[in-house]
Amino acid sequence: MSSRTNISCLQEAKRVAIFGGTHGNEMSGIVLANMWIQNATEIERKGLVCKPFITNPRAVEKCTRYIDTDLNRAFTPENLSASELEALPYEVQRAKEINQMFGPKGGSDAYDVIFDLHNTTSNMGSTLILESSTDLFNLQMVHYIKKAMAPHTCSVLLNEHPQLKYSTTRSVAKHPVGLEVGPQPQGVLRSNVFESMRTILKHALDFIELFNNGVEFPPCTVNVFRVQERMDYPRDTNGNITAMVHPHLQDCDWEPLNRGDPMFLTFDGRTILYEGANTVYPTFINEAAYYEKQQAFVTTCREILAANAIRKAFK
Amino acid sequence: MTEEKAEEKNKMASVFLPALGGVAVCGGTHGNELSGVYLVQEMERQRKERGDGVWPIPVTTVLSNPRAVKECRRYIDTDMNRCFSKAVLSTPITDSSPYEVRRAQELNNLLGVKGSDDVMDMICDLHNTTSNMGLTLIHYSASDWVTLHICKYLQTKITKVPVRVLVLDFPINDAYNLESVSKHGFTLEVGPQPQGVVRADIYVIMKEAVDLTIDWIHKFNSGTVFEGGDVEVFKFIKSVDYPRDPETRNLTAAVHPQLQDRDFCLLKRGDPLFLSFSGETVTCEEEEPLHPFFINEGAYYEKGIAFHLAKKWTLTVPSVQVQTTNSA
User: Fold this and answer.
1) For binding Zn(2+), which residues are annotated in this chain's numbering (chain A)?
2) Residues A212 and A173 in one domain
3) Which of A167, A302, B31, B236 has its CA 20 to 30 A from that of B280?
């Protein structure tokens, strides 16, 4: 029985942006965006415009994550509607500017797709981050990217959690996609990480070009890791951490963590075990920027998302 | 030669050195190199809990750059680990002096004064690097038998990671690092670890190295004879920067995947160094084979350094033992 009746017809994705430098010390995206601002040949595709853009230039200049506040948490409705531009933290001003250029968030004039380029100190390999389990365009795109990257693994992280979800820079677009590649220290450019990110974007743009050209993508499933819970470090009464991610857990992003497995190692050598009832799949394990956000890692559960066939809607 | 005669020969060849007064363990000289920050805090906690007797020798713990540690940054105004030359230490302090220059002079008063008779015998300055350098012991002199013996001891006792010795060969007054304030000080550099991260495996190595250093000093002071022998060291020769755009000074290449993480390998003419963003490989043009280290250290981009190059040397150290009234 053909699935002709189950094809979703979607608007073509004509306006695409590639954001680098949302965090000023995550170097792969900064170098890629700057490279393409100089010479956009590599990202040109028929049927779409692709704009490379540095979102947090002051932080990039100082090679620091942010100046006043994390830009990748700043796209809240309150911030975007705030007035008194001069009194606002730098990143909130910047969020308003970006929302004007590439949004408005939630509006019909917003950019179709934004890729926001990030690095992590965690051993996450190549990761695509989605904010919705029902965005068919994004699900089909990540499916295409994963197939094209194979045998290189591309994990998919889904953050749809009502409390842990946050207002990202890319969320001004209709189809936001986060690219997270690690491990890479802050302020460092590793060739292999840089080239992986570059390749992911190549496949992503290929997909959009094919889609805009009328190609139909058959139904597919995507294996994702859905964010469950944030786990903080053990801390003392002054808020200082008293233990480190255990060597058995360190670098084991996406691997199962079972009840009774070592989780933390105190500075004086004691092991703290994971006591959760269910097996979880931790990620963002020991990300440098998350010490101040009270996060040693996040737990995820595995899920299979199904996506209808899609093709471009005829006018 | 009979065993007795050989033993006598060794005893005669021993160098007698004064007992060491103790060690200052310094962490957070760079505020985002976290193993040392947490190790110093842990040592201070142990002292509070168990008293000074927790170590067999006098141990001073120092958080070198508290403001940078608080902000988890390398430095506030200027790199503190370049502030300990005699020139900077004697700069008059004004309101506009960089924070680190001020703090360096405070530390010099606490642990020095550099060049006087009153200095600490030993400073262990704890650092991390984003480079894959395992445990590297860095010292500014190639002829300090105490330091070289400690290095030799650490090399035999630590087997989890490679332990290498790097000598900078500066005259002491020009040496600008914190440890040069002491008589026999050295840097304990452990990597790879990202800035702002504490990895348990790296912390454990650093803790072991500090414990073994204290152990050596205690054994030495108690009369143990440490046998002489050869010590392989790496001597700094020069630095190499990234290929950059002549106008913007932006990078045009990254460390080549075949060089990345291969600190202390042997680099020969023709070996790949950098992979440009447009896909070309830049190769080594050095006449003689050298050993790269601090490959892709995050803090060195602003200093124009992609990696340093070193030559391998074998130094011979004599047997050493502590000076007593009989052997003086």
Assistant:
1) 23, 26, 118
2) yes
3) B236
Q: What residue spans in chain B does CATH classification 3.40.630.10 cover?
A: 12-233
Q: Which residues contact B92 (CB under 8 A, 6 or more apart)?
A: none
Is A44 designated active site?
Answer: no
Structural domains in chain A (count): 2
B147-174 confidence digits (pLDDT tens):
999 999 999 999 999 999 999 877 877 8
Torsion, CA B125, CA B193, CA B42, CA B208, rounded to 10:
-70
Amino acid at B149: H
Q: Write the DSSP string, B69-113.
A: HHTT-S-SSS-GGG--SHHHHTSPP-TTS-HHHHHHHHHHHHH--
Q: Enter the tokens of residue B17.
A: 């050195």
Edge to edge, the sheet with strand A271-273 lists A243-245, A262-266, A271-273
User: Whats the size of chain B, residue-wise?
Assistant: 328
Distance (Å, whole) CA B113 – CA B91: 14
Contact A255, A249 (CB under 8 A): no
Torsion of CA A93, A99, A100, A102, to 10 degrees: 140
**Which residue in the set B72, B254, B277 is minimally distant from A190, CB to CB?**
B254
pLDDT digits (tens, 9 = 90+) for A64-98: 999 999 999 999 999 999 987 778 999 999 999 99
Q: Which of A180, A229, A255, A287 is catalytic?
A: A180
Q: Please state which CATH number belongs to domain B12-233.
A: 3.40.630.10
ipTM of the complex, rounded to two decimals = 0.95
Chain B (268-287) residues lying within 8 Å, Cβ to Cβ, of chain A:
275, 277
Q: Rg (Cα) of chain A, in Å, rounded?
A: 20
A132-153 confidence digits (pLDDT tens)? 999 999 999 999 999 999 999 9
Structure tokens at B178: 């914190």
> SS3 for B143?
coil
Class of domain B237-309 (CATH, top level): mainly beta
